[in-house]
Specification:
45% of the residues lie in helices and 14% in strands. It is of the alpha/beta class. It has 2 domains: 363 residues, 3-Layer(aba) Sandwich (Rossmann fold), CATH 3.40.50; 315 residues, 3-Layer(aba) Sandwich (Rossmann fold), CATH 3.40.50.2000. The strands form 6 sheets. The chain has a 6-stranded parallel beta sheet with strand order 19-18-17-20-21-22, with helices on both faces. Helix 9 crosses helix 10 and helix 18 packs across helix 27. The protein is globular, with a radius of gyration of 27 Å.
């Protein structure tokens, strides 16, 4: 048709239906589950507006609505035949036959199905996203028949449930609409799962009493963080109130069905719903949660008599300052398996955050280190590197990434070293052209591309990177003749719209960029770019072009990280703290092949005991003092000298993430980075060692571990015959068991 495929791809909108790592992880998991031949479904909400589009105006973040469905979505298929009702509000009647939830408001859940193809195996799974619809008699069955027009306009109130994604990453905002969204996806999904279970040959046994006995053997439900935690009381409500199962049997089935993945240890991110809100919106669920809690606390009291503090710590209900439901505690009590997402994180979960629970049932706690799909994050985004690897070790590594270890044989192969460097250079030139087109800045493609892309958050310490930029700038100005390894520093990411400090950090980075990029004394030695509207499609462009990956969170705060893995697989070197999956990356590649710096978890704990005093570092480190004084004096904001006073005040008086404490080690480590970059061959050899060690971080490996250790299903390597071939041969080999 004379159309350019790449041009066509550029036109398609991202489905930005998540905030950051959590949503992207789910997408990688769906790809791996299909590729491993698992009968798995991904359930979520079909938001009409996804994560906002970020515009930078005068250095500030400005949000615009993400109207991603404006031109339609060719990949989805509406399934009105599977529409289901979801109930809200109302009251509970206790009758002779049990509890009844009555006088509720009904919203319909309309499913949209998107196919999820496995890699070259003819398996296609389903992602089912729910959209909210008002019933046709909405507001018309009441007494207000008079105002028909208003009644129809009010349908929006019901349909607002799936209107927009809450844009917070690692932060809990206890809004009623958000709780409605969480229950909406849970209630629709559980009805769907039970309908499918009853329709299958496993569900149709004669004796009514044992209908659900096989449920946990046929259905596994993985809770991706606590956001779908209401699934636990909802499944109990279905079993007890509707299916009339005895409580203990229902609870046993429920626990064996659910497993919970914890994704963060930041206290401000943990969901704690006010009891009065839950009572208003979901009165029956609150009663069930109280019942679960009572039985749970009775059990604890029998094991630890007179230990009231333990009861308080382990309760699902937190007292004081308004009663709240701790959703993580609900998930732990209601699941048969709990996991963190990297070794260090799972240890912190066990020994600190949920210590009481882990002492009680240590066998429930596991680790499942995150991974990324090599299909999107190598083949699709970096075809040059993927092909180069295939020439050396064959094409099988795409489905078995552990085969990358074979690249160790070529670490000293001069031709291979040159080819790896060449692919990187081509990617950099291509991205430099993109930057020049989008940002009208001239980029030196031979400079080191130093990239820090992720959600803007204090714990991720974009501020520390910013202080390093200022330090490099000051060194260039102090001694313009001194050898300086040229860098293009690229920082990108979205700040939650209500997160003042994160927005100030974006403004500061842009203010510093303005000064650095326009100083003739600096020239092409240092360029700073804030990458606007960072998203998956932009990650696919910047990651293959990166030389240095910044993974510099305070030790103990980043649960895993997955961007770190994407950079490693695409031939970037990592500068990072011993946090999240960085620890395992260093373990796989050898610590000498990453630039590791700064406090370990133990050091952070120790510093907390002593008391962190920022002032002390400021007075001891002249370059830090100079950088801070410049920000404070208005050097980067001459028209508004005290623009960054909030940032400065935070850094000195309430910096939970201890930027100053790691500054010196970070700057010294960056000097080692520059030194190695001067030796192109040594740099590229280190790159090859990293790629060769990246195999562990495939989401295929992660999903195999979930399948075997938690869901109890076996991955299948069988390639299903395509529709145009007879299938009787494969028919009896189909494995039983479903993971939902």
């Amino acid at each position: 048709l004379g159309l350019d495929m790449e041009e066509l791809e550029e036109i398609e909108e991202d489905a930005g239906l998540g905030n950051g790592g959590l949503g992207r992880l789910a997408a990688c998991f769906l790809d791996s589950m299909a590729t491993l031949g698992l009968a798995a479904y991904g359930y979520g909400i079909r938001y009409e507006y996804g994560i906002f589009n970020q515009k930078i105006r005068d250095g500030w973040q400005v949000e615009e609505a993400d109207d991603w469905l404006r031109h339609g979505n060719p990949w989805e298929k509406a399934r009105p035949e599977y529409m289901l009702p979801v109930h809200f509000y109302g009251r509970v009647e206790h009758t002779a036959t049990g509890a009844k939830w009555v006088d509720t408001q009904v919203v319909l859940a309309l499913p949209y199905d998107t196919p999820v193809p496995g890699y070259m195996n003819n398996t296609v799974n389903t992602m089912r996203l729910w959209s909210a619809r008002a019933p046709n008699d909405f507001n018309l069955r009441d007494f207000n028949v008079g105002d028909y027009i208003q009644a129809v306009l009010d349908r929006n109130l019901a349909e607002n449930i799936s209107r927009v994604l809450y844009p917070n990453d690692n932060f809990f905002e206890g809004k009623e609409l958000r709780l409605k969204q969480e229950y909406f996806v849970v209630a629709a999904t559980l009805q769907d799962i039970i309908r499918r279970f009853k329709a299958s040959k496993f569900g149709s046994t004669e004796s009514v009493r044992t209908v659900f006995d096989s449920f946990p053997d046929q259905v596994a439900i993985q809770l991706n963080d606590t956001h779908p935690a209401m699934a636990i009381p909802e499944l109990m409500r279905i079993f007890v109130d509707i299916e009339k199962l005895p409580w203990n049997k229902a609870w046993d089935i429920t626990k064996r069905t659910f497993a919970y993945t914890n994704h963060t240890v930041l206290p401000e991110a943990l969901e704690r719903w006010p009891v009065d809100l839950v009572e208003k919106l979901l009165p029956r669920h609150l009663q069930i949660i109280y019942e679960i809690n009572q039985k749970h606390l009775d059990h604890i009291a029998s094991l630890f008599p007179d230990d009231v503090d333990r009861l308080r710590r382990m309760s699902l209900i937190e007292e004081g300052g308004g009663k709240r439901i701790n959703m993580a505690h609900l998930c732990i009590v209601g699941s048969h398996a709990i996991n963190g997402v990297a070794k260090i994180h799972s240890e912190i979960v066990k020994t600190q955050v949920f210590q009481d629970f882990a002492e009680l049932e240590p066998e429930k706690f596991q680790n499942k280190t995150n991974g990324i799909t090599p299909r999107r994050w190598l083949l699709l985004c970096n075809p040059g590197l993927a092909e180069l690897i295939a020439e050396k070790i064959g094409e099988d590594y795409v489905r078995d990434l552990s085969q990358l270890t074979k690249l160790h044989e070529f670490v000293d192969d001069d031709l291979f070293i040159r080819e790896v460097a060449k692919v990187k250079q081509e990617n950099k030139v291509k991205f430099a052209l993109y930057l020049e087109k989008e940002y009208k800045v001239k980029i030196n493609p031979s400079s080191m591309f130093d990239v820090h892309v992720k959600r803007i958050h204090e714990y991720k310490r974009q501020l520390m990177n910013c202080l390093h930029i200022i330090t490099m700038y000051n060194r260039i100005r102090r001694d313009p003749t001194r050898l300086f390894v040229p860098r293009t520093v690229i920082i990108g990411g979205k700040a939650a719209p209500g997160y003042h400090m994160a927005k100030m950090i974006i403004k500061l980075i842009n203010a510093v960029a303005q000064v650095v990029n326009n100083d003739p004394a600096v020239g092409s030695k240092l360029k700073v770019i804030f990458l606007e509207n960072y998203r998956v499609s932009l990650a696919e462009k910047v990651i293959p072009a990166t030389d240095l990956s910044e993974q510099i969170s305070t030790a103990g705060t980043e649960a895993s990280g997955t961007g770190n893995m994407k950079f490693m697989l695409n031939g970037a070197l990592t500068i990072g703290t011993m946090d999240g999956a960085n620890v395992e990356m260093a373990e796989e590649a050898g610590e000498e092949n990453l630039f590791i710096f700064g406090m370990r978890v133990e050091d952070v704990t120790e510093l907390d005991k002593e008391g962190y005093n920022a002032q002390e570092f400021y007075e001891r480190l002249p370059e830090l003092k100079q950088a801070i004084d410049q920000i404070k004096s208005g050097f980067f904001s001459p028209n508004e000298p005290d623009l960054f006073k909030d940032v400065i005040n935070m850094l000195f008086h309430h910096d939970r993430f201890k930027v100053f404490a790691d500054y010196e080690a970070y700057v010294k480590c960056q000097e080692k980075v520059s030194e190695l970059y001067l030796n192109s061959k040594a740099w590229t050899k280190m790159v090859i060692r990293n790629i060769a060690a990246a195999g562990k971080f495939s989401s295929d490996r992660t999903i195999k571990e979930y399948a075997r250790d938690i869901w109890h299903v076996e991955p299948s390597d069988l390639k299903i015959p395509p529709p145009n071939e007879p299938r009787d041969a494969a028919e009896d080999k189909t494995p039983n068991g479903t993971a939902a």
